[in-house]
Amino acid sequence: MKQFFISILFLLTSSLNAQYIGTTVSGGSPSNLSPLVDELKAGWSFEESSGNALDLVNGYDLTNNGSVNQQETGIIDYCCFFDNPDGPDAGDEYFGGDIDTDFEFTGTFSIAVWVKTTVSTAYDGIVANYYTDNGWDLGNYNNVATFAIRNGGSGSTIVDGTTTINDGNWHLVCVSYDGAGDDSLKVWTDSGTFEDSGTRSGISYTSQCRLNVGRRHTTNWFRGYIDELFIFEDYELTDDDVAFLYNSGAGKYYPWEE
After folding, report:
1. Which CATH number is 39-249 given?
2. Does this model's pTM top 0.90?
3. What 3 state SS string does 121-161 have?
4. DSSP alpha helices (H): ranges in 101-252?
5. What is the pLDDT of residues 164-210, one digit of tens each?
6. Residue 200 in contact with residue 164, Cβ under 8 Å?
7. Dihedral pair phi/psi, residue 227, rounded to 5°
8. Which sequence spans correspond to the domains of the chain?
9. What are phi and psi of 241, to 5 degrees?
10. In angstroms, what CA-CA distances link 232 with 126, 154, 160?
11. Which 3 state secondary structure label does DSSP give 102?
């Protein structure tokens, strides 16, 4: 009987370990979760009842400007709500504005964030490190997710999702830029299949570039809910990573586990 129990325990342990070794496990999960942890630059779950948004990883706490509404119902526990008026140039609620060079990526980076909005707009900034055609920005443009890599006078490349995100439901938006590789940028919405891609060689910044959540710079204010924002450095998200984080629409708690 003891030998039988040991055999069963070995089989169970081998089965669990197989989730993290080899090829993709069922459900579109990555075969190795290490990059989602090791390459995480910063992450904000917006669980705070008041005050600044606390970074879960490296201490990049975001200043609460304009009294962003907190402890609203999120995709996972709580989130924040930006009660900015409709219109691209009217608003005062945002997080950040005081972190400069640490998010001026020139190599590879990726972003994952949950959003919910009903606003139909030309452009609302979700998260950005941008100033006048320099830097990078992710926003709601004509009701779909849009991601831009900008290189000053050399031009910009913009990729757009195809899934409507202003329907009042939660949506996972993920983007990546492989600046250390083939210079490709991609956007995903709610699934492990990217919706658009492009290329841009190089990305430029100015001294006015700052990390902002809830606006692009000093304009293009976001109205709606934001939750579970994660930024990865030196890592390009894969289709399986996105499917894993989406988790059939339920999201994933950090630190992520199967």
Report:
1. 2.60.120.200
2. no
3. CCCEEEEEEECCCEEEEEEEECCEEEEEEEEHHHCEEEEEC
4. 239-246
5. 999 999 999 999 999 999 999 999 999 999 999 999 999 999 999 99
6. no
7. -150, 155
8. 39-249
9. -60, -45
10. 16, 25, 20
11. helix
